[in-house]
Write a structure and sequence with these properties.
This protein is α/β, with parallel strands linked by helices. It has helices at about 30-45, 50-60, 65-75, 75-85, 90-95, 100-105, 120-130, 155-165, 180-190, 220-225; strands spanning about 10-15, 110-115, 140, 175-180, 195-200, 215. Helix 1 crosses helix 2 (about 50-60).
């Protein structure tokens, strides 16, 4: 009889949340972009075009619009979160996803720990997984902590290190990761995580180069990549 896998020996499978656990076609990102532009206009006294351009510039420079606001304008990130992420009508858009639930339940939890890994704040993560009815499928979450004076987010090395600490995993060889972001997957691969998978929306063009080790368009394709972590 094979000895059971201990917590320290388990693989940790990190899952991004937005545009990954649910499809981009729900347009939550588009609603968020408008809320961010509105926030820039209100707080920085900008017109729409100025706000849109600065928003995009901060996203390009830092990976998060909020980081640019904190660095350059002393904006309170918790207040920003209340006006942007927490203002999204999540419960009106997202509904329980039986296929997602079925996929997560097919993973052998005696071998694998499931961990959420997001650049959003914890309140947003909680609202999304509650709406999708998958709260009971994950062991924990690593999020961008808006209460910290310096924001740490993917794809910074410090964020990958934080995720490993939070999930209680020491070896990079036990870290698997799926995310829709090219730069996040590329960063995880460069950091040394064993299996990195970019999730492409069905309507996304195929990137000219792989960001990580694999690309998928459906979560079930992961069963072909790492079949040994699934229940038989």
């Amino acid at each position: 009889m094979t000895a059971p896998t201990t917590e320290d020996e388990k693989i940790v499978f990190f899952f991004d949340i937005d545009n990954c656990l649910y499809p981009r076609s729900y347009k939550i990102h588009d609603i968020m972009a408008k809320l961010i532009d509105d926030y820039f206009m209100e707080k920085l006294d900008l017109d729409f075009e100025e706000a849109r351009m600065l928003h995009q510039q901060y996203y390009k420079d830092y990976g998060l619009a909020i980081e640019g606001l904190v660095r350059h304008h002393e904006i309170d990130p918790i207040e920003y979160n209340s006006k942007v992420d927490d203002a999204l009508p999540i419960a009106d858009i997202l509904k329980p996803d039986p296929e997602l639930h079925k996929f997560l339940r097919s993973i052998d939890r005696s071998k694998v720990k499931l961990w959420l890994f997001t650049n959003a704040y914890k309140t947003h993560a909680s609202r999304v997984i509650k709406a999708l009815d998958v709260e009971d499928q994950f062991d924990g979450v690593t999020f961008c902590d808006y209460s910290e004076p310096i924001l740490i987010c993917k794809p910074k090395q410090e964020m990958f290190e934080r995720a490993m600490r939070d999930a209680g995993v020491v070896s990079k060889d036990k870290c698997y990761f799926v995310d829709d972001s090219f730069v996040n997957i590329k960063g995880a691969k460069e950091f040394g995580w064993k299996t990195t998978i970019q999730y492409l929306d069905p309507l996304d063009a195929t990137p000219p180069n792989l960001a990580g080790h694999y690309e998928i368009r459906k979560f079930d394709e992961i069963k072909k990549i790492v079949p040994d972590i699934f229940l038989s």
